[in-house]
Structures are given as C-alpha cells and as structure tokens.
TrEMBL record:
Residues 32-141 form the Aldehyde oxidase/xanthine dehydrogenase a/b hammerhead domain. It comes from the Bacteria. PANTHER family: ALDEHYDE OXIDASE 1-RELATED, XANTHINE DEHYDROGENASE. Dimer of heterotrimers. Each heterotrimer consists of a large, a medium and a small subunit. The keyword Metal-binding applies. It catalyses: CO + a quinone + H2O = a quinol + CO2. It comes from Hydrogenophaga pseudoflava (Pseudomonas carboxydoflava). This is Carbon monoxide dehydrogenase large chain. Its cofactor is Cu(+); Mo-molybdopterin cytosine dinucleotide. Signal peptide: none annotated. Catalyzes the oxidation of carbon monoxide to carbon dioxide. Keywords: Copper, Metal-binding, Molybdenum, Oxidoreductase. Its EC number is 1.2.5.3. The lineage of its organism: Bacteria, Pseudomonadati, Pseudomonadota, Betaproteobacteria, Burkholderiales.
C-alpha cells in the first residue's frame, strides 16, 4: 500500500482536477442533439402563445379589434392591457427600479412593443390569429436620439411618469431624463484640468448592438389550479431572481413557484431580465389552467429583447508633456430606450462604468452618466461583459491613444509609463475600486516580444512612405482591466438581494458526488470546471461528480450567471463547501486510522499518517465510513452547503495587439494578426479557457467590424434579421493567437478571477485602435464603429487616401 511520488502524480492525473485540459462533460449530449431546451418541453394540453406587436415607434392606441382572431378555430383567448388591469399585471417593475408595460397601456413607446397576446392550440394558429388582430393608432412624434430627447421642446415619452420629479436614482431634470449618476472627485479633477499643461478630448459613440444568442427567449408556464403550484421552464440566466419576481408579481408564495432553466443556447446578458412574454405566458396559464408555451422568433429577439451599449461618450485626459496622465474626465449620455430595464446592481444605475480609469495610475478622475428615455426598445445589458465595463474600457483605451498621438509618443511607451506598478497592488483607483492584483508590465513585454513590435512599426513606416502602396497598415494595442465577480453584497444587489452565490455538495456512500449551484450555464462548461474544483479539493475524480444547476426546487438560492461571476463567486462557494467536507473527512480518517487529526497529511485523494505512507484512507474509504459507522458524536453523511459573499470584486486583465491591412480601393479590412494575452488568475481548465477566449474574440470582432442596430427618424429598426445583423462565420473570423500570464487573486479561495468576458471587452477597442492607427499619419484620432468596408472606404475618400 505504499504511495510513491509517481503514484501520487498518476492519481492526480486521474482526478482530472484544476489545471487539467479535460474534455467538456456536457458536449456528448450536445453534439448528438440530445440537449434539452425550452422549445423541447412538451406538456399535456399545452397551448401556444404569440404576440401582437406595434408597427410604429410612438402612438396612442385608439382601438384593438379582437373579434376576427377570437372567431378562428383553435384560438382560446386574446388578451390586452385591459384584461391584465384587474390582475394589476399590465405594468411590471424592472430590475433598474422603473416600471415597464407588460402590454401597451393606451399608447406604444417603441416599434415592436407588445400590444396583445393570442393563445391557441398550436403556434401556427396563434401566428395566424396575430395577423387577424387589428389595432388602430394615432401616431405621435418619435425621438430616437437621446441628445434630442433632452431638448426643452422634446415630446413627452413617458406620460405615466408625469409630475414625477425624482426616480429610483435621484432627481429628474427633464421629462425624458431618468437619472444622472457620477463617481470620483469632480472638484479635484476639475482643478487638475484647470492647471494641466496638456489636455485632449474626444467624442465617441458606441452604437447600440444586440447579444443575439443562438437560442431566442422563451418559456413554458404551467399553473396547477388544484395545488396552486406554478412551474415555469424559462431561458433565464438568473432563475432564482425570476422566481422572486414572479412571486412578487403574481402573489403566489415563492415556495409554490418553481423556475427551471434547462439547457440554454447562449445568453451573453440577453437572458438576465424579465420580459413581457414571460409574464404573459404565466398569466395565460393561470387564467386558462393549462400549460402555455411562448418562444420568440429571431426578428422579435433582435427587435425587443435587451440591447447593449448605445453610449454617447465625451472623454478628456490631462497630462504632462512627457505623457504622465494626471486626470480623467468623462461625460456620457446613455440611451436606455422606452423603459429603464437595464440589468445593473441597484446602487449602480450606470453599472460599473467607473472602471474607466483602466489599468492606469490616474490620480484624479470623475465620470458622469445621464440616462435618457427614447422611442427604442428597453433593456440595456452587459453583452458579454460586467455591467458597462466594455464601454469603460473602450473609452479609456481610445483616450490614451488620442493622448499618445498628440504627444507623438508610441502606444506601448505611454501605456507602460502610466501602468499601475506591480508593487502598488492592492491598488485603490480614483473611483474607489480596490484592484486585487496585477502585473501589467510583464504582460506587455511578453506581447511586444512575441509579435516583434519594433519590426511591425518599421514595416508600417515603410508602407506609409510608399504613396503607391495598395494597403494601409494599422497596429492596435490595448490593455484592459475588468471588474468582475459581481459581487460583494456591500456593493451589489438585485431587488435588495445581495449578489452572493451558493453551492451544495453531497458525497454518496460509494464515493461519487453531486453538486448543486445557484448559477446556470449557457455554454461556459460549468459541469466540467465545477467538477474539477471539487476533484482537486476532495480527491474525487471529476468524472464521477455530477453538477446540477437551474432548478430552483433543488439548487440553493443564487444570483445566477452573468458579469463573469461563475468562477469568482460560485467557484469560491464550491471550494469552501468542499473544504467543509474535507474538514469532516479528516475527523473520520483520524478515527479510522486511530490517530490525532494533526497526525495526518493530505495527498491528492487521501489522508495518510505522517511518516508512514502505508497507512492511509482515501476519500472513497471515508465516504463509506461516513454512512456506515461514523465516529461517536459526529452526525452521519458527508455533505455541506456554503453561501459565498465575496469581500471584493476580482480584476482579470489582458494585453491585446491587432494588425490590420486596409485595401485603399475598397475599404476592406483584413485582420493579419491578433495576439491576445489574458490573465485570469488560477486557470481551472486551459482548454475551456481557450474556447471561451476564442468565442469572446469572435464576438468582439463582430461588434467592432459590423454589428449595429440603426434606426430611421420614425423609429424603425433597420436591421433586425440575420440578413442585416452581422454574425461572423468561420469564413470571416480571423485566426487567434492566445497567451497568458497567471496573477492569482489574493482574496479568492483558489485565486481565480474569471475569463469568459475578457476577450470581448478587450478585443473591441483593439480592432478600433488598429483601424484608426491606419489613418493616424493624416491626423485622424478616432473613427466610430462599426468599421464596415463602406464606412472605412468613406474615411479613405474623406482623407484623400483612397486609390
């Protein structure tokens, strides 16, 4: 029974714990088409719901004609806001402290708003009945620009708020104004700018985009009128929060509400909020006493579910002549659409945008964000980022490039000059964030060495000197620091519920295990990585650890998956729950080996007596003992629950470099090279990390190079199909080169920081930086996204660079 070193290594390899690039456990069912999505749910007597939507962006509802639809065979009901009023469900609270119409009440506020619902025997009858419902409107003036919405003579968009001079986040200064929120020291920052030898400013617009997950939103609601139980299968990234909201809206005790999120085909923030379709399906099931299914189509998904971005940003930097940044000042006008339905922590109506000082040691900073109503769909979400961090990183990285250009400094040089130094961590920013750890200079050197940065700059200079060169060459260099792991309850909550998360682990008598979490995967590989954490902590092979999420009847209460919080928050809960079991297992092992607990060492999968490798008990031995004959005074079983409320956020970071070649005749931009270095702290599964980075980079490429949601003056969305909305395929997607450093978080139980959102956050400003850099020699400081061939060609023409 000896356990030589090599045997320990072999056993550790067999565990496939943290650090192992083990294949994803969930992939076997997905690649065979055995996934279980909301649209796969079928129930006896199930009816189908479809939605009548407004064709205009702003108008009064004169009359809704339902008779033709109700006369159709197979149609069970047509419901409007008037039908929901007796139930007080025609309006609902939003996560941002506003209210939103479930079905349009007397007027519509945006194109494709929900006006009525049809319930029928199948989805085809329901769709036909939707066409039979006729609605008469009196059109009203439309406002789609938030700057215009704040003009004195702008039409009143939210008549339901008439006379209200304050909102959830402070006073309202205009009838279309939602909030003004700021962070930092305004007086100190203004003083710095008043005396700074160098200042630069830049206006930039970050266009409205959409997460566009593979699976659209939907639900199956089933109310049991005898038991009073409500079960709802739903595409939700936060099922426990949905349960709480549903109970608050319906009056059904939360103990009788079950929310199940089965397999989810991508979320990216789009499936955090509560949509009117969910509420209507639940109401229909309660009214009719039968299950009701609603699954939206792609046009509905892009048109009405939560958008992202739509920030009009003005940035300013103050600096010394040699490039040392002294101050940052930012003013933002944020388009929130018709209702403030952003999914942000209660205390932060602009999310965590105040991370906009980035990776830099900036002594004074202030930012102000003004939220505004317009005639667009509501629901700004953190599209694969943590609460507006993408906009913040974009802002600071563009501003640093603008400053470098004014001072004629190299991009790498000015960044290295202003980085927070390794010895400064933990570092408190001018906005009050306490960065846990980082080593930016080492990461930057690694990237510059890997791509031979001096050679790239020399090539670019030669290309610029050749007037006949058919292409322009641009080099984008970006560093970013994310703030993720939402979050500490002292800072973050939703509807008053703190953003902790949870884990329950049960070890079975034969040594296998089941773990249940309050998070919910949408493709991140939780069933694999969570099992790997437990494997390392408890010495149980990850292959025999079952991971369950998404069912509020079995999972402990958690705040869900978004804001890159799975590993930073749930991962910590897992590790600490496992350590509770580990502590109990040590007591049982000591009893079995007839020694004191302090006489035991832990090695991979067993406790052994110090100095005698032949005397040991594996976790499998201990599990059997826990259920068979535990020590006197120790309760049977081997299980634990832990709720983890983090002491701080985590701060993953990265350095990205992109090289583009722009065809001077067509404006076509080709990504020649993209090098991405990420630091997410402790790496649990390198293979999954690599996959997450590839996915995030691809989404970042889509946003920077093609995605936008344009509106005409009448509020018509001009790109709400996949014929218009850019989703890159393998043909368009560049080749990615990835790298990493490891700087563990000092306060996290396993040192992990989170990674899945970093590539999206970092890549978008990198692509823009590369495109703008191709024009920098003619004085261009910024070009707004998306960088489509046509838009780039127009810039070439404007600056006399086109061939």
């Amino acid at each position: 029974m000896n356990a030589p070193v090599q045997d320990a290594e072999a056993r550790e390899l067999a565990l496939a714990g943290m650090g192992a690039s083990r294949l994803r456990k969930e992939d076997a069912r997905f690649i065979q088409g055995k996934g279980n999505y909301v649209d796969d749910i079928k129930m006896p007597g199930m009816l189908h719901m479809d939605i009548v939507r407004a064709p205009i962006a702003h108008g009064r509802i004169k009359k809704i004609h339902k008779d033709a639809a109700l006369a159709m065979p197979g149609v069970h009901a047509v419901l409007t806001a008037e039908d929901l009023k007796p139930l007080k469900l025609h309006w609902m609270p939003t996560l941002a402290g506003d209210v939103a119409a479930v079905l349009a009440d007397e007027k519509v506020h945006f194109q494709m708003q929900e006006v009525a619902i049809v319930i029928a025997d199948d989805r085809y009858i329901a769709a036909d009945a939707v066409e039979a419902v006729k609605v008469e409107y009196d059109e009203l003036p439309v406002v789609i620009d938030p700057i215009d919405a704040l003009k004195p003579d702008a039409p009143v968009l939210r008549e339901d708020l008439a006379g209200k001079t304050s909102g959830a986040h402070g006073p309202r200064e205009h009838h279309n104004h939602i909030f003004t929120w700021g962070a930092g020291d305004k007086a100190a920052t203004d003083a710095v700018f008043a005396n700074a030898p160098v200042t630069v400013s830049q206006h930039m617009y970050y266009p409205r985009v959409h997460p566009c997950p593979l699976e659209t939103c939907g639900c199956v609601a089933s109310f049991d009128p005898i038991k009073g139980d409500l079960t709802t299968y739903i595409t939700s990234q936060a099922p426990h929060v949905v349960r709480t909201v549903v109970s608050m809206l319906s009056g059904i005790p939360e103990s009788k509400v079950r929310i199940v999120s089965p397999d989810i085909g991508g979320g990216f923030g789009n499936k955090v909020g509560i949509y009117p379709g969910y509420v209507c399906a639940i109401v229909a099931s309660i009214v009719l006493g039968r299950p009701v299914k609603w699954v939206e189509d792609r046009v509905e998904n892009i048109s009405t579910t939560a958008f992202a971005r739509d920030y009009h940003m003005d940035g300013e930097l103050a600096a010394t002549p040699d490039g040392k940044i002294l101050g940052l000042r930012v003013n933002v006008v944020a388009d929130h659409g018709a209702f403030d339905a952003c999914a942000d922590p209660t205390k932060f109506p602009a999310g965590l945008f105040h991370i906009c000082s980035g990776s830099y040691d900036i002594p004074a900073a202030h930012c102000s964000v003004k939220g505004v109503y317009t005639n667009k769909a509501p629901g700004g979400v953190a599209y694969r980022c943590s609460f507006r961090v993408t906009e913040a990183v974009y802002l600071i990285e563009r501003m640093v490039d603008v400053l470098a250009q004014k001072l004629n400094m190299d991009k790498a040089e000015i960044r290295a000059k202003n980085f927070i130094r390794k010895e400064q961590f933990p570092y408190t920013s001018a906005f009050g964030f306490e960065y846990d750890s980082g080593d930016y200079h080492t990461a930057l050197k690694k990237v510059l060495d890997a791509v031979d940065y001096p050679a790239l700059r020399a090539e670019q200079a030669a290309r610029r000197a050749d007037p006949n060169s058919p292409t322009l060459m641009g080099i984008g260099l970006v560093t970013f620091t994310e703030v993720v792991g939402a979050g500490p309850s002292k800072m973050c909550d939703i509807l008053g519920v703190g953003m902790f998360d949870s884990c329950e682990i049960r070890i079975h008598p034969t040594g296998s295990a089941i773990a249940r979490m309050g998070t919910i995967t949408q493709g991140q590989g939780h069933q694999t990585t969570y099992a790997q954490i437990i494997a390392t902590e408890l010495g149980i092979p990850s292959e025999v650890i079952q991971v369950e999420e998404g069912d509020t009847s079995t999972a402990p209460y958690g705040l869900g998956t978004y804001g890159s919080r799975s590993t930073p928050v749930a991962g910590a809960a897992i590790a600490l729950a496992a350590r509770k079991i580990h502590a109990k297992a040590r007591k049982i092992a000591a009893h079995m080996l007839e020694v004191n607990e302090n006489d035991l060492d832990w090695e991979v999968d067993r406790f052994k007596v110090k100095g005698d490798d032949s005397k040991f008990k594996t976790m499998a031995d201990i599990a059997w003992q826990a259920y068979h004959q535990p020590p006197a005074g120790l309760e049977p079983g081997l299980e634990a629950v832990h709720y983890y409320d983090p002491p701080n956020f985590t701060y993953p970071f990265g350095i990205y470099l992109c090289v583009v070649d722009i065809d001077r005749a067509t404006g076509e931009t080709k990504v020649r090279r993209f090098y991405a270095l990420d630091d997410c702290g402790t790496r649990i599964n390198p293979m999954i990390i690599e996959g997450q980075i590839h996915g995030g980079l691809t989404e970042g490429y889509a946003v920077a190079m093609g995605q936008q949601m344009p509106f005409d003056a009448q509020g018509n969305l001009l790109g709400n199909t996949l014929m218009d909305y850019f989703l890159p395929t393998a043909v368009e997607t560049p080749h990615w080169e990835t790298d990493h450093t490891v700087t563990p978080s000092p306060h996290h139980p396993i040192g992990a920081k989170g990674v899945a959102e970093s590539p999206h956050v970092g890549s978008i400003p990198t692509f823009t930086a590369a495109v703008v850099d191709a024009f920098a020699h003619v004085g261009v400081t910024h070009l707004d996204m998306p960088h489509t061939s046509y838009r780039v060609w127009k810039s070439l023409k404007e600056h006399n660079l086109a061939l």
